[in-house]
Structure formats: structure tokens, C-alpha cells
Design brief:
The structure is a single chain. α1 crosses α2 and α1 crosses α8. The protein has an 8-stranded parallel β-barrel with strand order 1-2-3-4-5-6-7-8, surrounded by 5 helices. It contains 8 helices and 8 strands; from the N terminus they run βαβαβαβαββαβαβαα. It is an alpha/beta fold. The protein is about 40% helix and about 20% strand. The chain starts with a strand and ends with a helix. It has one domain: Aldolase class I (TIM Barrel).
Length: about 220
């Protein structure tokens, strides 16, 4: 299982040092939480853009971009310039499946992997037909928009159902889980079938990044 460290709560004054420490500690990706203040309450566009600019000059680790925005096309363009590993968009931000598929195709045409994310209350049945067109399905295990929330237990079952469907239909899709994940619940998340976990506060607030990441990967 791979670790995508959310840098949402990284302090700006120490960000360069923190990014370096996270890379040497063994994180697999830097998770970029892009919020527009409309689709979700918080607005992180400015700081995430700034952090991406820094990361592009100091690291070769892949960027894992998660767009929690209403104007999806505009933000896809804004973050493609940083050449991320993947861009994940929300199912709930689209008006219809055609629009959603067009966005996903556009991401892939620009040499970037495409992902789709669903909120905790969105039923997985709504995105099953879209899975063949994505590289990643990101299951929000908290309500998107804020860091430091507790994982919602009902989302574990959603991950299990998705994993079963992916295996049965022989799809090459990674399951990513995001929200409230820490050392205490990582085993349950892993056993449910998760391939990539997004971890923020549990790593950033720890005294030893390497030790925490190693424990999460055990």
C-alpha cells in the first residue's frame, strides 16, 4: 500500500523543509488538496498553487492532485502545468456522465492519469459505469473540505464493495482512501482493499515522519 501525504496543513514558513523531510521519510506522493470555497467551504487554491510551484523545483516525487472545485475544466488546466501523476475530480461536480467523461478524457489526453472521487454519502452504483475510464477511484472517508476529521466507518464497506466489483470485472483501477486515516485504523483500511491512502494530520503532526510512514506501511 502506498502513502500519499496531504500537505494541506503544512505550515507555510517551514514548507520547503517539511517537503524535504517527507520525501526522505518515504512518502510515495504529495497529495494536493485544491478547494475553491464553492464546492467545499475552504479555499486553498492560492497556497496549493504555491506549494506545487515549490515542489516542481525541489522534488521528483509525483503530485497527486485532488480537485474539490465547481469549475472543473478551469482547475484541470491550472494544475496540468505542474505535470502531476494524476488529477482526481469529483463525481458530484458534474451535471451528467457525458461531461464527466469529457473531463476524464481531457486529463488523459494531457499525459496525466485520471481519477474520480465520491463523497461519503454518494452510492458507488452511480460511478460503476465510469470505472473503466479511470485509473483511480478516490473514496472520501470524511466529508471533503477540512482536515483533521474522524474517519466515517460506513465508508469502509464502500471500499470493500468497490474492491469486489473491480476484481470481478477485472478492472485495472486503484482504490484510494482519503480522510481521518491514521495508525489506529490503517489496518482496517488496508484489509478493505485500499491501494493508496491519503494521510495528512497523522503524519504532519507526528514527531517522526519516517517512523509514522513506516508504521502506516507495515
Amino acid at each position: 500500500m502506498e502513502i500519499s501525504t496531504s500537505i494541506l496543513n503544512v505550515k507555510q514558513e517551514n514548507c520547503i523543509r517539511t517537503f524535504y523531510d517527507l520525501e526522505t521519510a518515504g512518502t510515495d506522493y504529495f497529495h494536493i488538496d485544491v478547494m475553491d470555497g464553492t464546492f467545499v467551504e475552504n479555499n486553498t487554491v492560492k497556497i496549493m498553487t504555491e506549494y506545487c510551484e515549490y515542489l516542481n523545483t525541489i522534488t521528483r516525487l509525483p503530485l497527486d492532485v485532488h480537485l474539490m472545485v465547481k469549475d472543473v475544466q478551469s482547475y484541470i488546466n491550472s494544475f496540468l502545468i505542474f505535470e502531476p501523476r494524476n488529477i482526481t475530480i469529483h463525481y458530484e461536480a458534474s451535471n451528467n456522465s457525458g461531461e464527466l467523461l469529457n473531463w476524464l478524457q481531457y486529463i488523459k489526453e494531457n499525459n496525466c492519469k485520471a481519477g474520480i472521487s465520491i463523497k461519503p454519502d454518494t452510492e458507488i452504483e452511480k460511478i460503476l459505469d465510469i470505472l473503466p475510464y479511470v485509473h483511480t477511484i478516490l473514496v472520501m472517508t470524511v466529508e471533503p473540505g477540512k482536515g483533521g476529521q474522524k474517519l466515517l466507518p460506513k465508508t469502509i464497506e464502500k471500499i470493500k464493495e468497490l474492491k469486489k466489483y473491480i476484481i470481478q470485472n477485472k478492472l485495472e483501477v486503484d482504490i484510494e482512501a482519503d480522510g481521518g486515516i491514521n495508525i489506529d485504523n490503517i489496518k482496517e483500511i488496508k484489509e478493505a482493499g485500499t491501494d493508496i491512502v491519503v494521510v495528512g494530520s497523522a503524519i504532519i503532526n507526528s514527531s517522526n515522519y519516517r517512523e509514522t510512514i513506516n508504521k502506516l506501511k507495515e
